[in-house]
Amino acid sequence: MIKKILISSLLATQLNSTATAEQLLDEIVAVVEDGIILRSELDRSVNNVVKQLNARGGQLPPKSVLDEQVLDRLILQELQIQKADAAGVRVSESEIDAALSQVARQNNLTLEQMQMALENDGLNFAEFRNEMSREIKTEKIRNGLANQSVRVSEHEIDLFLADNELSQKEVRLSHILIALDANASEQEVDEAKNKVNNIYTSLEQGENFSKLATELSDGQKALEGGDLGWRKTNELPTLFSDQLKVMKVGEYTHPVRSANGFHIIKLEDSREDAAQMITQYNARHILIENSELVTPSQGMEMINDLYKQLQNGGDFSKIAEEKSDDVSSAPLGGDLGWFEINKFGQRFGDVVKSLEDNEMSAPFQTQAGWHIVQKLGQKETDISEELKREQARRAIHARKMDEEIESWLREIRGEAFVETRI
Question: What is the 3-state secondary structure (H, E, C) of 181-242?
Fold first, then answer.
């Protein structure tokens, strides 16, 4: 994706004035395959990271280190966007609206209040919206590719339940990764080992974990101080969960090796949810399915027409029964029954979660096609044996997805043509 750039121009001045000035309006800081990253993009991203680190009270690394880390992230994002564009991945306005609404709800704000808060902090809302679109697109391509190769067998579920019993324990982790390619040479392995051992020595001498992660980690969350957030222990890679069994809050591991490289993991906090309860949702939807006969743009026109009918008082059940392409729910007026939030995919679940009871969404797009969904209710319920197996399947799937995505990101970064100019 080639971006247009402004060409620097020489502004003539009088001969008796100061020297003729060259005004640099923008410059390329990296060439990434057939795309570029501009200085303005890098500066904007660095400023956002600085604001986030300051808000968390984190220590800022040197400017040169921060520039390099942020540029690496932008390069990886650009590669994913190019892969997504090549695969025909699209993000609709309604998907962006749903994602923004979810972020606002998570911060106990309306969408308008969040926009005002961002602009008061000096952030451009249009740029924030564009960044959200890019995040959704990269999430789609990552999850789509990883889903193609991730499989969970019934035997794996049996072993998981026998060993884990669906522990509801959650942990907050920080992480430092010194990455290695799968075909790394012996010298590269030794260099990575020396680097991670030096980091461990710095930690033992009292250096701040978050600061070292920001400056030195190759992990996706390096710019967040390595903070992985709260994660269920049963969804973590086995390497992590095995280490956590003998750790106390505040402790960190010795360097440990995986296929991705060397890791140091810190247990920041832990909490136990003893109640074996889950939230189930009830909703109905209308689907215009992707097909060879209906292009995405035609599907969008069709779903928007149905949305207008609903807004003008049309009967949801009747329209779903007559027009929805979901052969399972259409005869039931679009009713999907009771389900766990991500049963129909994360994007669908995010939209349902953002709705109040009886509220109807705007049209939005998933890999299945175009949807309109109406949330009918939610409830807490005990975990049944069937649900336990389904939860186990999702936990194993999430664990494998994380590993598959990490491997894919290393692969596309290693194979890409990248030229940095800072």
Answer: CCCCCHHHHHHHHHHHHHHHHHHHCCCCHHHHHHHHCCCCCHHHCCEEEEEEHHHCCHHHHH
Q: What is the CATH number of domain 1-86?
A: 1.10.4030.10
391: amino acid identity, one letter: Q
CA-wise closest residue to 341 among 364, 373, 306: 373
Taking 80 as the threshold, does the pLDDT of residue 387 lie above it? no
Residue range(s) in the chain whose domain bears CATH number 3.10.50.40: 167-275, 277-382
Domain with CATH 1.10.4030.10 in the chain: 1-86
Strand 28-32 to strand 418-420: parallel, antiparallel, or no bridges (unpaired)? Answer: antiparallel
* Inter-residue contact 264 to 213 (CB < 8 Å): no
Cα 305–306–312 angle (5° rounding)?
Answer: 95
Contact 98, 365 (CB under 8 A): no
pTM beyond 0.70? no
pLDDT digits (tens, 9 = 90+) for 11-35: 222 323 333 333 345 799 999 998 9
CA separation for the pair 327, 364 (Å, rounded): 19
Please, what is the average pLDDT of the chain?
Answer: 85
Q: What architecture (CATH level 2) is domain 167-275?
A: Roll (3.10)
Architecture (CATH level 2) of domain 277-382? Roll (3.10)
